[in-house]
Design goal:
The chain is mainly alpha-helical. Helix content is 60%, strand content 5%. This is HEAT repeat domain-containing protein.
Length: 603
C-alpha cells in the first residue's frame, strides 16, 4: 500500500478550543490490492485507512490541549488508533465519498471526513485514566493470564480466540510471535487459524512478513498441502522479505516434504511429495531470475545456494539435482564444497555419475575456473577432498581426480599445511601436472640415504608398476634392512618395500630367496605375514624355490612354508608334496593337514 494525502480543508495550526466544533477534512488514499482482494474488500480497506488517518491528524491537535501526562506519543497514538479503529470511529460524525476509482489493482478513494474533537478527546482521556484500557497492555496481560492455566483444549481455545481478536504487531502484540509456534505445534484443533495467519502475512508491515509467513506455511503444512491460493500468497510474501530472512520461510517447505533418505521413516508431518517441492523450487528460481523474489531482489544463484543448504538433509537427491543444474549460477561455490563433498563421499561405492557426483564435478569446475580468487578455507576443503578420495582408493576416485587434475595440483602446491611427502606422493600417484617429486630411479637411489630411505619407499609405492624396473635396488635395500637393527623409520621402510615387491615385483631367484628368509624374520614388524603374501603373489614362479628350500629350513620357517603352499592356487605338485611329507615330518602333522585340506578344497 502507499499513501498520498491532499489537505484541502481547515489547516489545523492552532490548538482546538475546549468545546470545538467538528472538523471537516478532505483526504484521499490509494490502496494497492493483492490478487486475493475484490473490489469490495479493497474499498473497505481504503476507507478504513482514510478514516484512521483523519483521526490521527485531528488527534495531534486534540492532544495539545491535554495534560502532558495524558498524551500519547505519535507512534503509540497511531498504533492505538489502528488497533482500535472501531472505538475511535465513534468520533467520526460524517463521512462523504467525493470520488472513487477501481482499476483492478488500485482503489483510489477521496472523501470528506468530519471528526468530533470533543469525542476524540474523551476517548484519549479514557485511555490514560483507566476508563478505557490500553489495548496493547490489556491483550498482553490477558495472554499472561491464560498462559498460567493448565494445558488443555479449553486453554488452547481461549488462546486461539485471543490471537484471532487482534492483528500481529511486533510493537503492540509481540506476544503473538511467542504464542503462534506453541499453538501450531500443539495437539488441539485451530479452526480459522490457518486462514488468519495467511491474512496477517499480507497485512503486516514488510519487515514483519518474514516473521509471520513461516508461521503460516508451517501451520498449513501440518494439516495438508498448500492450496493454490495459499501458495500464491507465499510467493507474494517472499517478494517482500529481505534476502537474509528468506531461508526462514523456505525451511518449512522442506521440513514438511517427505524425506528422500534411504532410512527415513514416514512421518505424519510430511504433507508434500518431493515432486511438489521440486515444482515450488522451479517457480522460485524463475522468479529470482526475473528479479521478483525478496527485497532487494535475490539472484537465481543466491537462491539456489540457499535452497541447497535448506533441503540437502531431508531431500538429498533433489538437492544434488538442483546443485548440478544451478552450479554455474552460484557466485560462491567454495562455500558449498565441503557439504557436497561429504554427501558424495557417503555413497558406497563412489558414484561420479550420480547426483552428488555431478554436483561435485560442477563445483570443482567452477573452483578451477576461479582459482586465483580462492581463499584459505576452500583450499583446505579441496585438499581434504583429495585426501579422502585417496583413502577410498576406488574406481570413482581416479575419475574425479582425472577431471580436475589442475585444481588438485594447484591446491597441493598452494595449501600451506600439506607436508612435502604427502604432496609428492599424491602428485606421483595421480600423475598431477607440475610434479617435482623423484622419478622411480631417483627414488631407488634415495633408498640408500639414511634420512631419505623412508620417504623414498613411500614414493616408490606411489609410482607403482612404473617403478618395477627398480626391483633389484629394492631387494638390495631389503637385504641390508634385514640385518640392520637401527635407522630412521626402519621398520616402516622395510614394510613398504615388501609391499612394493608383493604388488609390482617379479619372482626372480634373488627376490624369492629373500622372501623365504623373511618367513623367519624376528623383527618387530609383521614381516613373516607380508613375505608369505609376497610368495603367494609370486606363484607359480616361487613354487620350485619353496619346495627345494623346505628340507633345509628350521621348523618355524617350514611351518610357514606350509601355510604359503596352502594359500596358493590348487596345484597337483603341491598336493603330492604335502602327501609325501605326512609320514616323514610328524612334528608338522597339523600344519601339513591344514595346508592339504586348503589345497583340496580349491580343487
Amino acid at each position: 500500500m502507499y499513501i498520498r494525502l491532499v489537505i484541502s480543508a481547515l489547516a489545523l495550526a492552532l490548538a482546538l478550543p475546549a468545546h470545538a466544533a467538528p472538523v471537516a477534512l478532505v483526504r484521499d488514499y490509494t490502496y494497492r490490492a493483492s490478487e486475493n482482494d475484490s473490489k469490495v474488500s479493497a474499498r473497505k480497506a481504503a476507507l478504513q485507512q482514510l478514516q484512521a488517518l483523519a483521526i490521527e491528524e485531528v488527534g495531534v491537535q486534540v492532544q495539545a490541549s491535554l495534560d502532558s501526562t495524558e498524551r500519547l506519543d505519535g507512534e503509540t497514538f497511531s498504533r492505538t488508533v489502528q488497533n482500535n479503529i472501531q472505538s475511535f470511529a465513534q468520533a467520526l460524525t460524517r463521512t462523504r465519498i467525493l470520488e472513487e476509482q477501481w482499476d483492478g489493482e488500485h482503489f483510489f478513494l477521496k472523501a470528506e471526513i468530519e471528526v468530533d474533537p470533543d469525542g476524540l478527546g474523551k476517548q484519549l482521556r479514557g485511555l490514560q485514566k483507566g476508563t478505557s484500557t490500553d489495548p496493547c497492555a490489556a491483550k498482553a496481560a490477558e495472554y499472561q493470564t491464560l498462559g498460567k492455566k493448565l494445558p488443555g483444549a479449553q486453554r488452547t481455545a481461549e488462546l486461539l480466540a485471543l490471537s484471532l481478536s487482534v492483528p500481529f504487531d511486533y510493537d503492540c502484540h509481540r506476544w503473538q510471535y511467542d504464542l503462534a509456534p506453541a499453538l501450531i505445534r500443539g495437539q488441539h484443533p485451530l479452526p480459522g487459524y490457518r486462514d488468519y495467519l495467511f491474512a496477517q502475512s499480507k497485512s503486516v508491515r514488510p519487515e514483519e512478513t518474514e516473521l509471520v509467513l513461516p508461521l503460516a506455511i508451517d501451520a498449513a503444512l501440518r494439516q495438508s498441502e498448500l492450496s493454490a491460493t495459499e501458495w500464491q500468497q507465499v510467493v507474494e510474501g517472499l517478494a517482500r522479505v529481505r534476502p537474509t530472512y528468506l531461508p526462514r520461510s523456505l525451511a518449512p517447505l522442506s521440513n514438511h516434504t517427505r524425506s528422500q533418505k534411504a532410512d527415513a521413516r514416514p512421518a505424519p508431518g510430511h504433507r508434500q511429495p518431493a515432486e511438489r517441492l521440486a515444482e515450488q523450487i522451479e517457480q522460485l528460481l524463475s522468479l529470482a531470475g526475473a528479479g521478483r523474489l525478496a527485497t532487494p531482489p535475490m539472484s537465481r544463484g543466491e537462491l539456489a545456494h540457499e535452497l541447497y543448504r535448506i533441503i540437502r538433509h531431508n531431500q538429498p537427491l533433489l538437492a544434488a539435482e538442483l546443485l548440478a543444474r544451478e552450479a554455474p549460477t552460484i557466485s560462491r561455490p567454495d562455500l558449498l564444497l565441503k557439504n557436497v563433498a561429504e554427501a558424495f563421499l557417503r555413497s558406497t561405492p563412489l558414484e561420479p555419475e550420480g547426483g552428488h557426483g555431478k554436483a561435485l564435478d560442477r563445483l570443482l569446475t567452477r573452483l578451477d575456473h576461479d582459482w586465483q580468487g580462492l581463499q584459505r578455507q576452500p583450499l583446505q576443503d579441496v585438499h581434504q577432498l583429495l585426501r579422502s578420495l585417496d583413502a577410498r582408493n576406488e574406481a570413482g576416485t581416479q575419475q574425479i581426480i582425472d577431471r580436475h587434475r589442475t585444481l588438485f595440483a594447484n591446491t597441493l602446491t598452494t595449501y600451506p599445511h600439506v607436508d612435502a611427502l604427502t604432496r609428492d606422493r599424491l602428485f606421483i600417484r595421480y600423475q598431477l601436472p607440475g610434479s617435482t617429486a623423484c622419478t622411480p630411479a631417483e627414488c631407488a637411489r634415495q633408498l640408500f640415504s639414511d634420512e631419505g630411505a623412508f620417504e623414498a619407499s613411500v614414493l616408490l609405492l606411489a609410482h607403482g608398476a612404473q617403478a618395477g624396473s627398480q626391483q633389484a635396488e629394492v631387494v638390495r635395500k631389503l637385504e641390508r634392512l634385514r640385518v640392520q637393527r637401527t635407522g630412521y623409520r626402519r621398520i616402516e621402510t622395510k614394510a613398504n618395500l615388501i609391499t612394493f615387491l608383493t604388488r609390482h615385483g617379479r619372482a626372480d631367484a634373488q627376490t624369492v630367496a629373500l622372501m623365504i628368509q623373511l618367513l623367519g624374520d624376528l623383527d618387530d614388524g609383521d614381516f613373516p605375514r607380508q613375505s608369505r603374501q609376497a610368495l603367494v603373489a609370486f606363484y607359480p614362479g616361487s613354487l620350485d624355490a619353496l619346495l627345494q628350500a623346505f628340507p633345509s629350513q628350521e621348523r618355524l620357517v617350514q611351518q610357514r612354508i606350509l601355510e604359503v603352499l596352502g594359500e596358493m592356487p590348487a596345484d597337483a605338485r603341491i598336493q603330492a608334496f604335502l602327501r609325501g611329507l605326512a609320514g616323514e615330518t610328524p612334528h608338522l602333522r597339523f600344519a601339513i593337514e591344514d595346508a592339504l585340506a586348503a589345497q583340496v578344497g580349491k580343487s
